[in-house]
Amino acid sequence: MASLDLIVDIHTSVAGPSVQVESFGIPMVAASFTSPAWSERYRSYSDLDSVIADGFTVTSPVYRALANVFAQNPTVSSCGVGRRALSSTNRVVITPVTANSRLYSFDVLGVDGVVYVASFTSDASATVVEICAGITAAINGLAAGAAVTATDNTSNVSVVADVGGSYFAVAPVAACYSLVSLAQPHADPGIATDLAAIAAENSEWYGVVLADDQGAATITAAAAWCAPNKKILVAGSQDSAIKAAGSADVASVVAATSNNYATIAYHSRAGHECIGGAVLGMFFARNPGAVVLAGKTLVGITADQLTNTEFNYIKTKKALSYTSFGSLSLLQEGRMAGGQWADVVRDMDWFEATARGALVDAIASNDKLPYTDVGAAVLSGVLRSCLQRAESAGVFASGWSVSVPAVSSVSPADKSNRIYRTLKYYAVLAGGIQSLGVGGTVTQ
């Protein structure tokens, strides 16, 4: 019998792997811990059961942060945990406002992971000295498991853990929200060193939250590391100065560096609830081009009762807030500290990585890409495909274009060095509507 190969001769080859493009949907929780005892600096988790199986307790900062990540709907398929070798000695400073016959009450997340309530009621002729003494006594009167000590500084109260490096948190209850301000002025133990070591072992993650440190110095140092390394930091902070006038707060300090890879999320319970984990869990669950931060509801995060003045100070400082609007709790406003929208930063990183990978793949998959108009047409076709993909994803609006000058216009030096740099694209961001004004006319 004659073979059909005489009519149609088919040869199939299996192509090698294409250039790998970075992931833009994996968050990472950074924390210091001694149990479980890891030898590595990074592990990935897809559910909370695996976190428990590895030895973390439900009260640990890592578990709490991952619980906020995975609680979002939809949520990410995986989240990394990065082990910090340099632990923080956290310090919370409480500064009360003098008020007569008022309750000063705090939820204290003890070192043992239990939430204790410390309360003091001022008398009818209160002074700041009296109030500080009362708050100090209330915190020091907590059960031994809290393992924290308050120090009366007459104008404020400083709280630290009995054992350095142990995690605890303090947050005012709603009834006295306006009666105190909080700050965390402890030193940065070296977060940049830790982030670099984690990334050196595994850099698949694109966003990071700090599970066990809301200190201003640590946040500032983490933000400085993230910018050149193109990793997004969402740092929760209960620094009360963020929602007031002034420029010494952590949000203002980071904003002054024009950092578009860090955003500070003001949250009065940032030490108890990992708002950064919730934000990244929601944000990264959607594909690039498909989501903005503003107007989203976060699962497992308590909304702050902000005044319009406080809200606007936070907004002016380009920080995030999770705010109650009547029956709605919404995330606002969605800028990075440098002023760019968070979704734009992620979308453009994704597009550039996608286009770079596709163009490199086009060069690598050809035995020779000729330095002719034919070769330029191949590359422009690849770029057009990437732009079309970005339009379909919601990154760019329709109407983009690609400019492909004739190869004859390329400089002899570039052609001699086999560098083709005249391929250009033009596109408009699709953007997003986050607020609006409505005008109308009513007739009778």
Structural notes for this entry:
With about 450 residues, the protein is of the alpha/beta class. It folds into three domains: about 25-85 and about 185-340; about 90-180, Immunoglobulin-like, CATH 2.60.40.4390; about 365-425, no CATH class. Helices cover about 30% and strands about 20% of the residues. It has eleven helices and 17 strands. It has helices spanning about 50-55, 60-70, 130-140, 190-200, 215-230, 250-255, 275-285, 310-315, 340-365, 375-395, 410-415, and strands at about 25-30, 40-45, 80-85, 90-95, 105-110, 115-120, 150, 155-160, 170, 180-185, 205-210, 230-235, 260-265, 320-325, 330, 400-405, 425. The strands form four sheets. An eight-stranded mixed beta sheet has the order 2-3-1-11-12-13-14-15, with helices on both faces. Strands 7-8-4-10 form a four-stranded antiparallel beta sheet, covered by helices on one side. Helix 2 (about 60-70) packs parallel to helix 7, helix 4 (about 190-200) packs parallel to helix 5 (about 215-230) and helix 9 packs antiparallel against helix 10 (about 375-395). The longest helix has 23 residues, at about 340-365. Residues about 10-20 have low confidence and may be disordered.
